[in-house]
Amino acid sequence: MVGTLQQGNIPVNFKAxxxxxxxxxxxxxxxxxxxxxxxxxxxxxxxxxxxxxxPEVFSYSTVVLLVSSVCLFLAARALKGGDTSxxxxxxxxxxILGIVFAVMQFQGWTSLYQTGAVLVNNNAAxxxxxxxxxxxxxxxxxxxxxxxxxxxxxxxxxxQEVAEYRQDITSIFWHFIDILWIYLYVFLLLNS
Amino acid sequence: MSTISLHDTHHDDHGHGHHxxxxxxxxxxxxxxxxxxxxxxxxxxxxxxxxxxxxxLFRLQLAWPDKTFPLLETFLGxxxxxxxxxxxxxxxxxxxxxxxxVFFVLTAGLSGTFSNLLIPLQVGARDMASPFMNMLSYWFFxxxxxxxxxxxxxxxxxxxxxxxxxxxxxxxxxxxxxxxxGMTLWLISxxxxxxxxxxxxxxxxxTILNMRTKGMDLWKxxxxxxxxxxxxxxxxxxxxxxxxxxVLLIFDRSFGTSFYLSDIVFGTEIxxxxxxxxILWQHLFWFLGHPEVYIVIMxxxxxxxxxxxxxSRKPIFGYHAMVYSLIGITVLSFIxxxxxxFVTGMNPLLGGVFMITTLIIAVPSAxxxxxxxATLWRGNIRFTPAMLFAIGLVxxxxxxxxxxxxxxxxxxxxxxxxTYFVVAHFHLVMGSAAIFGMLAGVYHWFPKMFGRxxxxxxxxxxxxxxxxxxxxxxFPLHFLxxxxxxxxxxxxxEFEFMNKWLTVNVFVTWSAIIAALAQVAFLFNFxxxxxxxxxxxxxxxxxxxxxxxxxxxxxxxxxxxxIPTVYRWPYDYSKPGADQDFILQTTPxxxxxxxxxxxxFEGNEEAERIQREWEAANKPVQE
Lengths: 192, 623
Ligand code: HEM
Ligand SMILES: [Cu+2]
Prior knowledge:
The structure holds two protein chains of two kinds.
Chain A: H1 14-46, H2 57-80, H3 84-114, H4 124-155, H5 160-190
Chain B: H1 6-15, H2 23-28, H3 33-63, H4 70-76, H5 87-123, H6 131-150, H7 181-210, H8 223-254, E1 265-266, E2 269-270, H9 278-312, H10 319-332, H11 348-376, H12 385-408, H13 410-416, H14 420-450, H15 456-482, H16 502-532, H17 605-622
Antiparallel strand pairs in B: 1-2
The structure holds protoporphyrin IX containing FE and copper (II) ion (CU).
Protoporphyrin IX containing FE binds at residues 164, 293, 296-297, 339-340, 358, 361-362, 365, 401, 404-405, 407-408, 413, 416-417, 422, 425-426, 429-430, 434 of chain B.
Family (chain A): Belongs to the cytochrome c oxidase subunit 3 family.
Subcellular location (chain A): Cell membrane
Main location (chain A): membrane
């Protein structure tokens, strides 16, 4: 039997699956767009923003996240070059930096909390800081899951095709949440 | 190569096939897009029946506000104490009716069914980009339905603030009974629903863009696919905004933030929430809400395009114009949401802008209508049940669309807003039109889904009663609205000027009851025909699209051999010079020399030369 439908096994279309991640990136951007639009309209109608000096740790966490992106970029390069151990090492690097970022976000919230800028607030702009950074952190958790799936693939010696597919979707997603955080951070800095 | 008989493959599939299909993997946790389509459809039908029954309940109240129906108490217990529907429950009924119809029936039931069924089959793919996510999409949908229905079993009843759940009613749990646990369940259900809808949409778009068969370029796609594609894009771009809004609402309700709340007083108690604005919810909601109404209607329009062309035995009039109108609607639907908010104290200048964009969106809608009529014009019409429903859609789309133009004018809308005029408008243009599109699709693709035919006699009965009754129900409501009768009121007995409308309400309720009874003909026909219907042939409607080239028996992967190649657009019906009045998309031009036209070759000079030579050689024979 020559048909492409061998024994009912349907070939996987990696390109189409990768595209799913891109589309998810679009919809997630729009969700954050919804919140930042709320913020802008709120600010325009009330004449005030969050009015805070954002905790310093947010700027450090931004740097950590940027470094993690570089790390992941190098990991992808290592995979293409066939250097498995380097690939693994860099993935671990990304993973650990991701965790460090998460911890720093918690520190940021703590220091906000200590200055009295709490979530339950009569200034919705301040509540919004928690909302956007919180939901961004959820994305980080999802991103860590992607990194893990790449790592697992690497230890299980999946085929090069599958490994590159997992690496690709991890990269798309991780770079996205990196850029997303920078957008949110700059947005909150500019619209205080 | 591609001529292996179906039975061989089928055997292979089962004998030493890859995965042994059990009942569970075949019918329940199926990853086959055709099975998932059926799951969506049947769940959608069940939800539609529930929502219809809810509407009959509140129609009873509107028609006979002073009568008691002891039977109601038997069924509804404390919701209808003494045989009369309680005011709280009335509001819950209206809310859940709207929610189920808009989201569960006309979004998931319609897009979910036909995107799943038709996208792989009509673009020529073995399945979706991610069959697993596709399965997830259905299961999320089912869970959302169950959570929504579970709110009927909580003490305080389901959400009652209307399907648009405006704060503060939705944001303050103690505002009214329906603002309590029922509202929480509504929000949970909706978050799950949006997840389902997004996962589905991502899959549809990726499949259409990446997995079309050889030769199927974008301009050879059937209009159903274009419509489903743009619908999915609308969903991806608008549903996340609803999530953003709902998250803030959940925080207001459950954690005490003040995104939408300010200056709320209960008796002597002042709520601590300060500084928010309920209008911001309306912005976020309608930024989804308006695209949502097009998410509902566009698949129905796509389905009708296909059915009207097939059954007029004519190419669709203005294929490109149809696509560009769909694109126009998609783009414009993002900048008209303010027309739902003309009376929120919006800056009149801004109102004017929304008014202009709203009136502009009527243009592509009108283009589509005229193209339908032009396709029907002098067609060789076959009045199949699907065709009747498709024509019904055109009728409702016109009569409901016209009132949209009234409402789009801010100066008129300030009077008409929140009256029965709006109810009449959207039940014709969205409710009736989209349901008719969906039913047309069910009648048309039933043979593809179940391998059997539905009974046409019952279908005609179903059509005529439903069509007439839908007009009898919704047309009179315009006049109530013009007279200022507000929507969502429990009873009109307290207002002198509304008393004269009571008889009309009785009439409307009777019409609604008859329309509901007519659906029994459909339900019986549908479920009976799944098992006992006449066996379908491979291409019962003599249509051109790819789904009719697959065998009647379903197999995972759709085509037993190679996926066919596509050579032409899907609307070569009654082409002059052709032997038959339809030419499948898979028929190469070399087999239809007698009917080829110069523009068929899209500028391919080699092909044009061959055609000219053939014509020169064959001309004398024809004379
Ligand atoms: C010809 C184009 C259309 C125009 C100009 C138009 C205009 C409007 C306007 C101005 C309103 C707001 C009325 C008010 O609340 O005061 C409205 C309500 C509505 N329209 Fe349309 N419309 C059009 C087509 C459609 C279509 C095609 C659909 C759905 C398929 C639709 C569904 C709705 C719904 C559901 C509402 C009511 C929402 C609610 O308040 O519950 N409309 N329309
Ligand atoms: Cu609208």
